[in-house]
Every structure is written in structure tokens, then in C-alpha cells.
Amino acid sequence: MDRNAVTGVDRIFLKLENLQPSGSFKSRGIGNSMISSIQSQDPSDKTRDVHFYSSSGGNAGLACVTAAVSLGYKASVVVPESTDEWTIDKLRSAGASEVIVHGATWFHADTYLRETVIPAAEKQGERGIYIHPFDKPAVWEGASTMVDEMKKQMPDGQPPDAVVCSVGGGGLFSGIMMGLDRAGWGDEVQVMPVETVGADSLAQSVEKGRLVTLPGITSIATSLGAIQVAENAFVQGRRPTVTPVVLEDAEACSACWRFLDDERYLVEPACGVSVALAYDGRLKHYLRNFRPESKVVLVVCGGSKISLDLLNKYRSQYQKRSEELAAKYA
């Protein structure tokens, strides 16, 4: 895309996490968490078969299964009832030993996994390893490596003015903050964690000064569907360098079809909501000390819950509303 014409900023850098093995940034954190679990295994426990278990609306599960297959282990995933058949089939095709559907939200699926599925596996003699999709230091550490790469890849090693990322449970956001601190950029780089209306547990928590639990997820961006963010994400969200952003589903979907036209990458709305800041002057609205020469990194987190058919449905549903919202930034 002509980034100055579209965004008003000359220097937009795309961190293409959609090219990770599982199709999303989750490969970094989930993969690191799995390797850490294997390395910390008690030598006396190596007689039992290792079986990884994850709860997910799709992307974390795919990351877990993809890594497990690569490492030569089994992996099973518990998904909430809102998960579409296409995503379930994708998990099975990736090599999942089992995909279990349970509960109205990720929280309910996760509770069932920890309290029922894994104990049952342990009774059968397996070593069931629970892989949390976002709330674990090993997950944040894995995600933080993208900042190490940014430090090498940014022109002259200079920090960006801002980093934009999507937020669901907060693993990616927590990792970015960890990486920025390690790089010595934590107090100077603005971070914009972006959510959709109806999946905005971080923004609501920051606004109210306490961890907020949503009654449910009403956004179509179900990959952002954690009814409560990790406590660490809430703590990081209150830092002065952080600017939470909440956009509508229509803006997230519009960014998906525009990004496909401009860059030939197909991403889901949970990713599109971050990409949306690159369109219609939104960066000028949210970026502190905005200048045409500002350097902004957009984390293109990817995601598997999208197809051309689905994107066309979103376009029919949301195009008019997206145009109305774009006019606000003109």
C-alpha cells in the first residue's frame, strides 16, 4: 500500500506473524511454553507418555498442535461451543489427537480442560501437560522475541514511535511489553493494544481501574474472546506509555478486505482490528505526537478463523457501517 496516502505516516512496518508455522503469533509463546515444559520434566517421570492439552477458540490450539506434531508429541484441544466446524476440522487436520467441544466461552472450556480432561488423562497413565493460551511467563517470553527482532530490523536500530497489537487474553501484549523493557525501549515507545467492542476486557479494566470480567463475548472477533485478561496484561495496560484502543467489528472486517487488496494477506478480524489503525486516519487520531515521519510497527498477528467466503459475508454485512465510521477520522 501507499502508506503515506492511506495512513498519513511514511514509515509503517509490518511484523508478519501471520507467516508463523501455525498461521499466527501464537507459535512463539505456545511453542516456547511447550519446550520449557519438556525441558523441566522430572527425569523420574519420563516413563509416561507426554500429551499436551490446550484450551482455545482456534489459534492457540493450532499453535499447540502444530508444535506438538513437530516435536513428536500428542496434543488435544478443548474449544468452546462457539467454535465453528471449519476451525475444528482445521485442528484435526493439523494433527490434534482429539478436539473436544465444551462450554459457552473459552473460560468454560478451559475450566473443563483443567478440572476434568487432564485429570482423566492422568488416571490413564499419561503425563498431561496443560498449556495456557496466554497467562504464563513462558508464553510472554516467547512473544517477546519479536521485539528482539524489531531491534535488529528497525532502521539504524532506532526504536519505533509506536507498536500496535491486538489483545485477547493479553499474552501477545504482555510479551511485547516484556520485550520493550528488555530492549530498553519500555519508557519511550507508545503501545496501542487494540480490541473490538464486545471483546474489550482490557480497555474496560484499565478504564475502571480493576480487572473486569465480561458477561460474554458479543464481537465476531472470537479469537479475542477472553472474558477477563491476564492480570499482568491489566498491570501493563496501566503504564503511561499504553493507549488502549477499541474499534467496532465493522472496522476490523473492513481492514481485513482492504489489507487483502493492498498486501495480498488474508487475516481474521481479530488481527484486522489492529491493521485498521493503518486506514482512514486512525493513526493520526491515536498516535501521540503524530508526525508524518513517525515510525509505527503493526503486529500482523494473523489467525486461522477466516476464509474468502467468510470475508465476503463480512463485506456484505459491514461495508456500509465501516464507511460511516471511516468518515469520523476524515
From TrEMBL:
<keyword id="KW-0663">Pyridoxal phosphate</keyword>
<dbReference type="InterPro" id="IPR001926">
    <property type="entry name" value="TrpB-like_PALP"/>
</dbReference>
<dbReference type="GO" id="GO:0006565">
    <property type="term" value="P:L-serine catabolic process"/>
</dbReference>
<dbReference type="InterPro" id="IPR000634">
    <property type="entry name" value="Ser/Thr_deHydtase_PyrdxlP-BS"/>
</dbReference>
<dbReference type="GO" id="GO:0006567">
    <property type="term" value="P:L-threonine catabolic process"/>
</dbReference>
<protein>
    <recommendedName>
        <fullName>L-serine ammonia-lyase</fullName>
        <ecNumber>4.3.1.17</ecNumber>
    </recommendedName>
</protein>
<dbReference type="GO" id="GO:0004794">
    <property type="term" value="F:threonine deaminase activity"/>
</dbReference>
<keyword id="KW-0312">Gluconeogenesis</keyword>
<dbReference type="GO" id="GO:0005737">
    <property type="term" value="C:cytoplasm"/>
</dbReference>
<comment type="pathway">
    <text>Carbohydrate biosynthesis; gluconeogenesis.</text>
</comment>
<dbReference type="GO" id="GO:0006094">
    <property type="term" value="P:gluconeogenesis"/>
</dbReference>
<keyword id="KW-0963">Cytoplasm</keyword>
<dbReference type="GO" id="GO:0009097">
    <property type="term" value="P:isoleucine biosynthetic process"/>
</dbReference>
<comment type="similarity">
    <text>Belongs to the serine/threonine dehydratase family.</text>
</comment>
<dbReference type="GO" id="GO:0003941">
    <property type="term" value="F:L-serine ammonia-lyase activity"/>
</dbReference>
<dbReference type="GO" id="GO:0030170">
    <property type="term" value="F:pyridoxal phosphate binding"/>
</dbReference>
<dbReference type="Pfam" id="PF00291">
    <property type="entry name" value="PALP"/>
</dbReference>
<dbReference type="InterPro" id="IPR050147">
    <property type="entry name" value="Ser/Thr_Dehydratase"/>
</dbReference>
<feature type="domain" description="Tryptophan synthase beta chain-like PALP">
    <location>
        <begin position="7"/>
        <end position="302"/>
    </location>
</feature>
<dbReference type="InterPro" id="IPR036052">
    <property type="entry name" value="TrpB-like_PALP_sf"/>
</dbReference>
<keyword id="KW-0456">Lyase</keyword>
